[in-house]
Specification:
alpha+beta, Arylsulfatase, C-terminal domain, 4-stranded antiparallel β-sheet
């Protein structure tokens, strides 16, 4: 499946959230709300999430295949490193 980054929206400030990213999957579906975060081990990609009624956060997209997840993360992080828009 093709993975294309549609947009990268950088977040100003000193917080851990660095950018929001939208991705097109297979040329057919756009998934919004990936996050580029800065953690203690560097930057990483957080899957789109939403808050439950109990205040806990839940991923709304969960890749089942580890190689597919790695490809997705590589594309998102490469687009983030390139600049504010892809």
């Amino acid at each position: 499946m093709d993975i294309d980054v549609v947009s990268v929206r950088r977040v100003d400030g000193d917080g851990n959230l660095k950018a929001f990213v939208d991705v097109r999957l297979g040329g057919e579906i756009v998934v919004k709300g990936f996050s580029v975060m800065h953690g203690k081990n560097g930057v990483f990609v957080s899957m789109p999430r939403r808050a439950g009624r109990d205040g806990r956060w839940f991923d709304i997209l969960s890749p089942l295949d580890e190689s597919w997840k790695s490809r997705l993360e590589e594309k998102v992080l490469a687009a983030y490193e390139e600049g504010p828009a892809a």
